[in-house]
Amino acid sequence: MGEREGGCCPSMDLMRSEPMQLVQLIIPIESAHLAVSYLGDLGLIQFKDLNAEKSPFQRTYAIQIKRSGEMARKLRFFRDQMSKAGLVAQVRSPGQAIANLDDLEVKLGDLEAELVEINANGEKLQRSYNELAEYKLVLQKAGEFFSSALSSAEARQREYSSNQGREESLEIPLLSEQETTDSSKQVRLGFITGLVPREKSMAFERILFRATRGNVYLKQVVVDEPVVDPVSGDKVEKNVFAVFFSGERAKNKILKICEAFGANRYSFSEDGSKQSQLITEVSGRLSELKTTIDAGLVHRGNLLQTIGEQFEQWNLLVRKEKAIYHTLNMLSMDVTKKCLVAEGWSPIFATKQIQDALHRATHDCNSQVEAIFQMLHTREMPPTYFRTNKFTTAFQEIVDAYGVAKYQEANPGVFTIVTFPFLFAVMFGDWGHGICLLLATLFFIVREKKLSSQKLGDIMEMAFGGRYVIVLMSLFSIYTGLIYNEFFSVPFELFAPSAYVCRDATCSEASTIGLIKGRDTYPFGVDPAWHGSRSELPFLNSLKMKMSILLGVAQMNLGIILSYFNALFFKNSINTWFQFVPQMIFLNSLFGYLSLLIIVKWCTGSQADLYHVMIYMFLSPTDDLGENQLFAGQKTLQMVLLLLALVSVPWMLLPKPFLLKMQHERHQGEAYAPLPDTEESLQSGANHNDGHGHGHEEFEFSEVFVHQLIHTIEFVLGAVSNTASYLRLWALSLAHSELSVVFYEKVLLLAWGYNNIFILIIGIIIFICATVGVLLVMETLSAFLHALRLHWVEFQNKFYEGDGYKFYPFSFFVLDTEEE
């Protein structure tokens, strides 16, 4: 939810959501805009839509919203143009702000028209420049065709003339006569020159050949550098071509083929002097266009720079105005057409601030009529609002991801702040890995201000948002790692020497055989002598499994106790006596008793088999326990607890539906009673959330009974399955520990044993990559998800309904931090 700082608000209380009130505001039209603006700055009222039956176009301020939308479109256009030019909008400064929306609308229109004109002129000039650049290439390359062909023809003519002078033949006069007689019938070949994309050149040549049945001559030359295409504006590799043909039909076919292949055609003169003259003219025009384009780009850059200096101010102003008019459209017009009526939810502590904002708006507008603020009485469920800070926000979001708390029910987020990172650490217990996680998170916290203003990737954004959760997770991981005595799976004698010493010189470090207790018990955590011994896995498995059960039963008991506080707060005695009491009896008769046996066994050092005790508690409760007896009177206690567990099931199932039916019949005549005051009505609305009958609702006894039956079966079976589910703490802890051992022994120690520096470096690199990738990333995510499941399912289902809805106040703070 929102963050509140300073002395304006009461102290933060996360246990229950803020008391809310439904308020009505009657605001004169002349001060409505400014009043909504001040309320948006305050951000403590959630308006209700009183015009839900009207379409957006039928509302009072539809024209103003359309104007704001048009201005927002122009600002988006400016932002796109600035991003293309590589410019960034500057952080807004308090000076030179345009406060009048009409002036801003005119200014944005002028700037858009000017920028559109500059872009259009620039595109035309750039297209002309690209066309002339291509034309110059055609003149140069095609000129080479004709000059080489002309020189070749002249050489052949000279050779022919020399041969003609030396040799005489009877055919010579005939040929001369033929040349003289056929000169009028000679056919001149036409030609077309241009550029074609290189990737299409082969297909272009084949199509030309097929379409003209081979009656063309095509010459192509590769252009070394990519050419900017005048049409698309992209750089394309092209070939200069010249097609020689005969006849008008062939020309038409060639023109169509050129058009189909996107070949740009350019005129060309056979005269060499004209070619050189054209090249000179084209080069001159290119230099002129280049100068003009550069000047246009400088002018465009200066204009965008000017826009960028005030872009953020204009953008925020337009978005604020749009939000204000959206809110004003949710207000209804009174019958006199002189006032707007608003309804909305606000925290009770915000009453004075809202009244001050309305009074300030009236004073600033010089209005003669003061706005009216009054509270409404309702049975409607209010929204849920927790005032959080940057530390508690992430924990609250973990809870809200499951479901938003019902109005003023107990908030699991208070306990999640401690229990979530602790259960994570139970699965992730290694103080070496915890330190790595802590150092990575401290980077986020140290650079918090800088990173909060930057756009991060999706994964980095999530990690940064949960930085304080990860800090606590790492601190608890260091704590549990010290208890497990594991630093990257290596044990250390941190607090004292090991309590075990060798009995004689033959004692091996790899086995506890021969070890005797020669010193005081190791003061904190697991004795380092256990690590590497043959008894390590049985000992740690027993320890972690029993510890998981103890933690699970404790957290489930906490959930049931919170259900009692909910019933007490909402004055629901039925839930207290017929839900809380039997649930506590059932859970603790079985698994509370198991937890007691675990503690007694640890304290006494007994060899009793707890599996046998729990199984035969159900199968043969009257049999003697024999060697599995832990204390006197255990058999009698077990029979009493089993009887209580059996009694608690019908206790949960039967009385509540009948009592709810009696309660409904007793209150049926009170449907039209006068409404109580606000707080009582809200409490009543929250109290009747069970859905078993309000004033006019039909009471279906069969539906209520089936619902209670499902709830009872779910709790009874869930008590067993939820307790077993906490064994994931043991399983994940074991997996993490064993993976650490594998990476340490099979990678690092193995590489060290080769006595080769290169193998050692490779081994260290592999160890670091495996530790970071598997243990610090994948295992962290895995333990996080399992801790999340334990909170959502095993803990919260004991008391948390989570069927409320969030308090979303009208606030400009959200506009300032979110993209439109």
Automatic annotation (TrEMBL):
- InterPro entries attached here? V-ATPase_116kDa_su (IPR002490), V-type_ATPase_116kDa_su_euka (IPR026028)
Instruction: Name any Gene Ontology BP term.
Output: proton transmembrane transport
- Localized where? Membrane
Q: Write out the coiled-coil annotation as residue ranges.
A: 101-128
Question: Where is it predominantly found?
Answer: membrane
Q: List the biased-composition ranges (Basic and acidic residues).
A: 157-169
The Swiss-Prot or TrEMBL record describes its family as follows: Belongs to the V-ATPase 116 kDa subunit family.
Q: What does this protein do?
A: Essential component of the vacuolar proton pump (V-ATPase), a multimeric enzyme that catalyzes the translocation of protons across the membranes. Required for assembly and activity of the V-ATPase.
Question: What is the protein name given in its UniProt record?
Answer: V-type proton ATPase subunit a
